[in-house]
Amino acid sequence: MAWYRNMYVCECGTKWEDEWSCACDDECPICGASDYSPIDSEDLSVLVERDESGRTQISYSDPSAGHRPDYRFLAEVENKGLATLLTQVAFDLAHPR
Fold first, then answer.
1. Which phi and psi (to 5°) does residue 22 adopt?
2. pLDDT at residue 37 greater than cutoff 90
3. 44 and which of 3, 73, 90, 91 could share a cystine (Cβ 3.0–4.6 Å)?
4. DSSP per residue, 55-79
5. Does the pLDDT at position 23 exceed 90?
6. Mean residue pLDDT across the chain
7. How many CB atoms lie within 10 A of CB 57?
8. Beta-sheet strands, E only, within the chain
9. Which H or E run includes 81?
10. pLDDT value, residue 1
11. Interval 85-96 mean pLDDT
């Protein structure tokens, strides 16, 4: 399932982040005002991590995940071009059409 970190700002000045499977509206955790849309969202559906040796590990949040991401390992590669291609594959796996 796609996974996002959503950033919000309330009229009371409170700033907060929440992670969810969509860019959904949220309620201010301080004053309780509701229906705040994210001011920004970061797609966390695909994790790309490079280690000291230059290898790239790619994982994606499986579409069967429920209320939190369920990251599945896809590949570990050295080639940057292949890492870019596999990152797109992972994105497609996390966002089925």
1. -155, 175
2. yes
3. 3
4. -EEEEEE-TT--SS--EEEEEEES-
5. no
6. 92
7. 15
8. 4-9, 15-20, 40-43, 46-50, 56-61, 71-77
9. helix 80-94
10. 73
11. 92
